[in-house]
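Aim 2 progress update. The chain analyzed this quarter is reproduced below.
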Amino acid sequence: MILSASISLAEGDFAWSGSLELDDPASFQRVKVDDPIILELGGEVFNLVVDNKTLERNGVGLPRFSVSVISPTVRWTSPRATTMERTWSDPVQARAAAEEATGETILWELVDWLIPGGRLAVHNATPADVVRTIAEAAGGVVETLPEGQLRVRHRFPVAVPDWATATPGHILTDAADNLSCRESHMLRRRVNRVLVRGYLPQSGHLAAEVDNRPDGLNEGRNSFFAGETAHLLVHAGPEVTSVELTASTGLLLPGLEQTLRLTQDVVFDGVASAILDQPAVSIDSVIWLGNDLGMLTLEADRRTLSAERAGVAIARISYTTVASSWGLTSPETVAGLDAFPVQVQAVAQNGATPLDGEIICQRGDGDHPGEDISDPLLADTLAKLSRGRAEIDSGEILQEVSLTCLHRPGLLPGQLVEVHDALMGQTWVGKVTGVTHAAAGPRLTTTLEILRHVPTPD
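Predicted structure tokens:
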């Protein structure tokens, strides 16, 4: 027999979790970790598994037999789940990638968009990590339904300004439902404008050096007399669309493109990736100097090498790279000197493909900008809008309310509830962010954590 039970889910929690107190030592002994448990509270059924067991006894009072329970989706989290190394090289729909990671159908209530090939890559990640990464990119959260199915939804299924006119999922009144209520006012940074981009802003790889190859443009030289021309090599990554060179003195002129073959010992320090010094056009040969981590893949940045598995290893890589050449002709004298240093600065200009562009999400006057959002998974306008709205909704003025009422089945985070507050003489609508059901003997209660919108004055 169960003496008491509680089960709860907070917004963004992967699974329902709770505890049961048993009165029978024999039943307690029969229960094993990961055993399936079906818990019925007030007509609502929860599919769970045993997460842990606790026996408390002090030699005087009666022993307490407690069983911790959790949703069966816990099998996709650590330590139960096997971690993975995976890169989705081909374009994939967000939902399809999440369901591939778990191997099961997900209740998908978030925008579904196409993730470009090579953007979704995980290292030492559980299936739950993969689903969270995808969902959070577009402003979503991952939860589990009482019956045990995984659910992905928008953090704010209804935009905050629309709460007042939306149809609530539940109506709670002081007369019939509410037992207690606690509200707290909090200071929150308001946000009503964000920039969302589908790439990570970066300067890109850019390296300039004197061409000191024995058979290069300078014929092996690395020092020059005043008035001579020194040839430079500039290496740029694929994200660099143009390069601007400026010298402290002298004349800079672009030259012919140069093809070089380089050899580098690349170190894998317990991981499955390493970096080449320069962007590669092709990998010509690979020699493992000891441990072999399998086939190497050259990633989109042309410098990152991904191995089939992680480990400690060294690979001798021969690869082909292409560099632009520049000639710097110095004057005969500078400030009356015929020996002087010259400083050369290289600046990269970066570009982005149309699908990776930026959008601005704004509500109202846009006078409260939030931090810029950059996520390489967001290569779709609808996905960017979804993420932008989530950030703006989070930046509304929201008040936290904790309310305990008579047991109410069917409540889930993300739902809207309408609360009739007789004491304050008002009715308001808020979003549920946490649900806890508790049973102690015949007494069943539900405690809700709710966000209530506090409209700003016009």
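DSSP finds four helices and 30 strands in the chain. The chain has four domains: 1-155, 162-188+397-458, 193-199+354-394, 206-350. These observations will guide the mutagenesis experiments scheduled for the next reporting period.
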